Amino acid sequence: MAELFVELLCEEIPARMAQKATQDFERLVTGYLTGAGLTFGDTFATSTPRRLVLSVKDLPAMSADRHEERKGPRVGAPDKAIEGFLRASGLPSIEEAEIVSDPKKGDSYLARRTIPGRPTLEICAEAIAEAIQKFPWPVSMRWGAASVDPGSLRWVRPLSGILATFGEADGEPAVVPVEVAGVAVGNTTVGHRIHAPETITVRRLA
Fold first, then answer.
1. Confidence of residue 119 (pLDDT cuts 50, 70, 90)
2. How far apart are CA 122 and CA 116, in angstroms?
3. Could you tell me which of 31, 29, 65 has the C-alpha nearest to residue 166?
4. Averaged over 53-76, what is the pLDDT?
5. What is the distance between the alpha carbons of residues 193 and 30, in angstroms, rounded to a whole number?
6. What is the C-alpha to C-alpha distance for residues 94 and 10, in angstroms, rounded to an integer?
7. Across 120-126, average pLDDT
8. What is the distance between the alpha carbons of residues 40 and 38, in angstroms, rounded to a whole number?
9. CA 54, 56, 58: angle at the middle one, nearest 5?
10. Half-sphere exposure of 155 (CA within 13 A, CB side)
11. How far from the centroid of its chain's Cα atoms is residue 80's Cα?
12. Is pLDDT of 201 > 70?
């Protein structure tokens, strides 16, 4: 089982916003992971004046396969109803559907399909990116080139870096390939501006 570790580094977060921001970040990321079918163990979230930090432990390498059923129209229904059912269910043709019988309603189509699991690394990248884009800051801003792009990232203060790693406790973790325009992503951070300004390589929360 693996750990996801994330740090969002930015300019100073107003103190009155820090506690809720910590909770929101944890909620948004773990909510996305759960919605994608992942289970996990302990979580830890905290903040400093310049960063939000989150650790999610005991994640599997892949999400589980999902099995879906979708009930369709009756056998002999109009072509448009059949076509809509095929689009919604993802079946290539009506021959791929099962026929189920009901004593009162007669025969109808049923689609069953298995959606394969996905690499957790990919899901984590999506979760972090979506959390950043949807973050509910009470006040936010654009900056630099982003200030002239209406669809660009907004953040409480300029977001300067994302540290995101995923891996086993005894191995070298991978960098989570988060895609947020204009923000560097990797496995390094910095400490106090005066007392520890050098680059620090980080593997996980510990």
1. very high
2. 14
3. 29
4. 93
5. 31
6. 53
7. 98
8. 7
9. 165
10. 29
11. 36
12. yes
| Token pair recorded at residue 158 | 């300029």
The pLDDT score that the predictor gives to residue 170 is 87
Q: Is the pLDDT of residue 149 over 70?
A: no
- How are strands ordered across the β-sheet holding 106-115? 66-74, 106-115, 98-102
Q: How far is the C-alpha of 188 from the C-alpha of 165, rounded, in Å?
A: 10
Q: For residue 132, give Cα distances in angstroms to 27, 48, 58, 155.
A: 12, 17, 23, 8
Q: What is the pLDDT averaged over residues 130-146?
A: 86
